[in-house]
From TrEMBL:
One of its GO terms (molecular function) is maleylacetoacetate isomerase activity. CDD domains: GST_C_Zeta (cd03191). Keywords: Isomerase, Phenylalanine catabolism, Tyrosine catabolism. The gene is GSTZ1. GO terms for biological process: glutathione metabolic process; L-phenylalanine catabolic process; L-tyrosine catabolic process. It is an enzyme of class 5 (isomerase). This is maleylacetoacetate isomerase. Its cofactor is glutathione. It catalyses: 4-maleylacetoacetate = 4-fumarylacetoacetate.
Length: 205
């Protein structure tokens, strides 16, 4: 069982050629399906995603990807070189912890409807300013060197969010170049946020 609204997890599963059953969790329907007793039993934080695998349930995207990497290491999403591996984790956490939570639904509700767009744009731009600078020293074809890594799985969905919130990507040529390279890969095409089963009609590609 794989409840998720975050496409970095379908990306990881697609790249590792894993079969799975997805159960979508609508974050707005009925006050938010993540607050149901059934889902809280899976993830007490009442957040997506949660993955049931190998007899355990794991929450938090990066923890899930790390588990998949440790138990199903081919193809690898973390480099063998420890310095590159640290860079991948740094970029992944910058995106998943430093940007994404600031523009997710629960935070946007708190800032009010009239402030949501400006708030999200500022949060994403601030994070992208830092990321663009970091990528100058880590990037090859992708975020860290020339192999797809966990960092790229976090980048592509956040660029999609930036598009959704109408963030000007002109100041971020490295981010844009990497994202373009990623979107040329089949796994990133089929796992794009606009192609998920629960994508609202107005956001579908």
């Amino acid at each position: 069982m794989f409840p998720t609204n975050k496409p970095c997890l379908p990306l990881a599963l697609a790249l590792k050629n894993m079969d799975y059953e997805m159960i979508t969790i609508n974050l707005t329907k009925d006050g938010g399906q993540q607050f149901s007793e059934e889902f809280q039993a899976l993830n007490p934080m009442k957040q997506v995603p949660a993955l049931k695998i190998d007899g355990i349930t794991i929450g938090q995207s990066l923890a899930i990807i790390e588990y998949l990497e440790e138990t199903r290491p081919t193809p690898r999403l973390l480099p063998q070189d420890p310095k590159k591996r640290a860079h991948v984790r740094m970029i992944s956490h910058l995106l998943a912890s430093g940007i994404q939570p600031l523009q997710n639904l629960s935070v946007l509700k708190q800032v009010g409807q009239e402030n949501q767009l400006t708030w999200a744009q500022q949060a994403i731009s601030s994070g992208f300013n830092a990321l663009e600078q970091i990528l100058q020293s880590t990037a090859g074809k992708y975020c860290v060197g020339d192999e797809v890594s966990m960092a790229d799985l976090c980048l592509a969905p956040q660029v999609a969010n930036a598009d959704r919130f109408k963030v000007d990507l002109t100041p971020y040529p490295t981010i844009s170049r990497i994202n373009k390279s990623l979107l040329a890969l089949e796994a990133f095409q089929v796992s794009h946020p606009c192609r998920q089963p629960d994508t609202p009609p107005e956001l579908r590609a």
